[in-house]
From TrEMBL:
<keyword id="KW-0805">Transcription regulation</keyword>
<dbReference type="Pfam" id="PF01418">
    <property type="entry name" value="HTH_6"/>
</dbReference>
<dbReference type="Pfam" id="PF01380">
    <property type="entry name" value="SIS"/>
</dbReference>
<keyword id="KW-0804">Transcription</keyword>
<dbReference type="InterPro" id="IPR009057">
    <property type="entry name" value="Homeodomain-like_sf"/>
</dbReference>
<dbReference type="GO" id="GO:0003700">
    <property type="term" value="F:DNA-binding transcription factor activity"/>
</dbReference>
<dbReference type="GO" id="GO:1901135">
    <property type="term" value="P:carbohydrate derivative metabolic process"/>
</dbReference>
<keyword id="KW-0238">DNA-binding</keyword>
<dbReference type="GO" id="GO:0003677">
    <property type="term" value="F:DNA binding"/>
</dbReference>
<dbReference type="InterPro" id="IPR001347">
    <property type="entry name" value="SIS_dom"/>
</dbReference>
<dbReference type="InterPro" id="IPR035472">
    <property type="entry name" value="RpiR-like_SIS"/>
</dbReference>
<dbReference type="InterPro" id="IPR000281">
    <property type="entry name" value="HTH_RpiR"/>
</dbReference>
<dbReference type="GO" id="GO:0097367">
    <property type="term" value="F:carbohydrate derivative binding"/>
</dbReference>
<dbReference type="InterPro" id="IPR036388">
    <property type="entry name" value="WH-like_DNA-bd_sf"/>
</dbReference>
<protein>
    <submittedName>
        <fullName>Putative HTH-type transcriptional regulator YbbH</fullName>
    </submittedName>
</protein>
<feature type="domain" description="SIS">
    <location>
        <begin position="165"/>
        <end position="304"/>
    </location>
</feature>
<feature type="domain" description="HTH rpiR-type">
    <location>
        <begin position="45"/>
        <end position="121"/>
    </location>
</feature>
Length: 324
């Protein structure tokens, strides 16, 4: 896509936008008057396609905005105008001009319609949910797809790499989890699990926080870098900084991806999902299960003393629960 690689989002997950059946959405005009050749409002699913079609006729600066949006639609819908301008390396007025060039009154209106497109897609991941599927049918497809993914990852992930990762975490003075967007949520979940294991841990999904944390790493410290695409530039930059300080980087990412290649210990997780269009579903769950596996391994290494600590935590939680 014009040399622009998709970045894993550093922003929150997609907002709640009512996703109606596609046949209904086609009857509703967008607030944003992106028009086709006949002058009619473009259907939600055609917003990004229309931008792509117009790339060659855009000004150079506006094209940079368009290319970034096409490469990172899930990220853009959560951005402020200053964020998009910074990422696309243009001025804020250029972003406004781009929005008006495609028929929107401004950036907020453009984001709304981009979100409508993303929410109204009748397919999710690689499971081919159709408009006519009943709840029983798409429930089965979602569950079957996830189970299939987990079994595949279970059988293909390198046991020696898992063992090396467990050993590194168990002996580390400090363990931090880095990720953006959906991977940032996985990082937060990992931090929540490992702090119970008496591991000094933190999770960062902000690039600046990652950089500052990376610069304070020391030999023996560990960073677990999580990426569903394995190509997030900001994450790769943070990983390099950690290694320069002598830290160990465990990379949870697809095989042969830049993140896996740059990691000290690559944990390769390959999931067949179209992350260029859809928010990853099964890969996120696969990453969570790998994190669970690492946590079990670390707990096993720490032995009986950890069991006493976990029992103390469990007893403390009972005081926070309402009696039946």
């Amino acid at each position: 896509m014009h040399g622009v690689s998709r970045k894993q989002s550093r922003y929150p997950s997609r907002p709640e936008v009512t996703a109606m059946p596609a046949r209904h959405n086609r009857e509703q005009p967008l607030n944003c008057a992106v028009c086709n050749r006949e002058g009619s409002p473009v259907k939600p699913a055609e917003v990004t396609q229309k931008i792509s079609d117009q790339l060659s006729s855009m000004r150079k600066s506006e094209r940079k905005v368009a290319e970034y949006i096409l490469a990172n639609p899930d990220e853009v819908i959560h951005m402020r105008i200053v964020d998009l301008a910074t990422e696309a390396q243009v001025s804020e007025p250029t972003v406004v001009r781009f929005c008006r060039a495609v028929g929107c009154s401004g950036f907020q209106e453009f984001k709304l319609n981009l979100a409508q497109q993303l929410a109204s897609s009748p397919s999710f991941g690689q499971i081919a949910v159709t408009e006519t599927d009943t709840i029983a049918e798409y429930k089965r497809k979602v569950f079957d797809s996830t189970v299939d993914t987990l079994l595949n990852v279970r059988d293909t992930i390198d046991n020696r790499a898992l063992e090396a990762a467990v050993a590194a975490i168990a002996s580390a003075k400090r363990v931090e989890f880095f990720g953006f967007g959906a991977s940032g949520a996985v990082a937060s979940d990992a931090q929540h699990k490992f702090f119970r294991l008496q591991v000094a841990t933190a999770a960062h999904s902000d690039h600046h926080m990652q950089n500052m944390s990376a610069m304070s790493m020391e030999p023996g410290d560990v960073v677990v870098a999580i990426s569903q695409s394995g190509r997030t530039k900001a994450l790769l930059h943070s990983m390099e900084m950690v290694k320069q300080q002598g830290g160990t980087v465990i990379g949870l990412a697809p095989s042969r991806s830049p993140v896996a290649q740059q990691a000290t210990i690559p944990l390769e997780v390959d999931v067949e999902e179209d992350i260029e269009i859809y928010t990853p579903l099964s890969s996120r769950i696969a990453h969570l299960v790998v994190i669970d596996t690492l946590a079990i391994g670390v707990a096993q290494r720490k032995g009986p003393q950890l069991q006493d600590h976990l029992l103390k935590l469990k007893q403390g939680l009972y005081t926070l629960r309402q009696e039946k």
